[in-house]
Design a protein that fits this description.
MetI-like fold; elongated
Length: 276
Amino acid sequence: MTNIFQRLCRTPQGLLSLFLLAMLAFAAVFGQWLAPYDPEAINYASRFAPPSAAHWLGADQFGRDVLSRILDGARSTIPLALAATVFGTVMGAALGTLSAYLGGKWDEAIMRTIDAIMAIPHLLLALILVSTLGKGSVNAAIAIGISFAPSMARVTRSVALAVRQQEYVKAAIARGENAAFIVMREMLPNVAAPMIVEATIRVSFAVMLFATLSFLGLGAQAPAPEWGLMVSEARRFMHQAPWLIIVPSCAIAMSAICFNLLGDGLRDALNPRDER
C-alpha cells in the first residue's frame, strides 16, 4: 500500500489529485464548523451581496452566505457520490464475476441483458429510476448506483474471464467449493485493482449526475445547500449575480477533475509494468 502511494505521488496527476482530494475531504468533514454563517440563514439585508470581506464568495438571493453553503454542501454531495459509486461497483462487480464464473448460457443471458440496459444512457436511466423511487438525495444516489452497475459488470467480467482460468480457481473447483465461495473468495479479490481504478473515475460521473438530478429538481430539495441545486436556483440571477452560478459550478468541476486525475494516477500506480 505504501509503494502504491509513493508511485501515485511520483506522477503529476496523482500529486494534484491528492491535493484536491485533501481539500474536498477537509470541506466534507469540517465544512459545517468552518462555515462563517448558518448556510440556511436568511438575511434580506445582504441579498446579492458581492464578494467582500463580510461574504468572501458573496451572498445569494436570500442573503445566504455562498461560502457557507458550498462548505456545507460538500458534506452531502461528495459522500453521496461516493456511496452511489460503491453501491454500483459492488453490484456490478458481483454480477460480472458471477457471469464469468458460470459461463455458457448463463453468461450469455446475463451479458445480453446488461447490453440492453447499457443502451440506455446513464442520465436517462437515472432519471427513470429516480422518478420511480421518488425525489430526494438518497433515492438519487440509489438510482445513480444502479445506473452504474451494468457498465461495472461489463468491465469486471472482462477481467474475471482471465482470472477464471487461473490455477487457484481450478483448484477451488476441484475441491468442490460452491459458486458463492469461488466468486467471493477466489475471484473478486483478484479483480479488485482494475475495479478500484474504474470506480475512482466513476465518482466524477456520480458527482455530475447527482448535481444534474438536483438541478432538474429530482435530487436534493430546497433549501439544502447542494451544489447542483445551487446552480439551478442561481440561473435566474446569472446576469445580476454571476458568482452565484460560477462558485458551485467550479466546485462541481473541481470534484470531477479531482477524481478523474486520481483514477489516472491509480491506473499508473497499480500497473506492475510501471514499477521499477
